[in-house]
Request: fold
Amino acid sequence: MEKKCRIALLGECMIELRGQMFGVMHQNFGGDTLNTAVYLARLGADAGIEVAYATQLGTDAYSDAMVAAWQQEGIDTGLVKREAGRMPGLYTIQVDETGERTFYYWRDSSAAKGYFEGPSCLLEDALDNLDALYFSGISLAVLPVSGRERLFKLIDKFRAKGGQVFFDNNYRPRLWANGHADARLWYDRAFASCDMCMITLDDNQLLYDIPDEEAAVRHAFSLPPREVVIKRGAAPTMVRVAGQDEIVTVPAFKVAKVVDTTGAGDSFAGGYLAARMQGMNPEVSARSGNKIASIVIQHPGAIIPKEAMPVFFFV
Ligand code: ADP
Reply:
């Protein structure tokens, strides 16, 4: 791609502790949009896709280390706001003898919540230098109402001048203190405010109280975005583009042994966008998303080592 393409991903990345309660815990960091940013940066850099991550962190050593790690991944951290006295959120993953995982979160006062506090905001100021913006249901959930309103205002402004907006429906009910009905109002706004959305069917079924998968597919394809991508685990991915009669269906790759599905959807999004943003059609883009996700689920954790990345990406 000759022209550089700049995308910002907005969200929250937290400190991760994985292991045994009061035992040995391995430290890492993670978050859905950050995971997508990492895969998009890895897969899109050669094609001129520039990836920035927008969030708020503290000025503590953990925040410093996260910023340094993201920069190592080729992610532009110029949109990361740093606020003294705030700390990143934290979560633990405990894995029992059967491999079952339990998550606990400490994120009520995490720094990311305050990204839109104050008269000006790095992301708002950067809109003229961006081609695309990506956010998720989790990005939305962690913001206070005033932050969400600022985000939607920013999106309106951005789209009016030709910016593309992508939304992933990741739904975590416990982040929505006022329940499904309140969350639905915000999701309806998000779907009405984006050009492309990625849907995990289970999440939409829960949020919109949809009885079965078939109805969930129908609902997803009735949503307003021009392009709707449905991720379905091991079942084929489906894409509907407005104005095209055919629904594109792309099988997932066969995986003999799934090790850990953490980051499957996030990496799919990175792969899909890396292809789509350099002009590939939905079919090639979905296959690329399926490909990277099939590799990610054969490794523990959301972010695989760089050495495990595919050499030839478009499949
Ligand atoms: P999420 O992680 O958002 O819940 P999915 O479970 O639908 O999303 O998985 C995202 C993508 O990961 C799928 O579209 C597919 O490409 C890949 N994937 C997930 N599970 C499997 C599997 N068992 N075999 C092959 N691919 C899978």
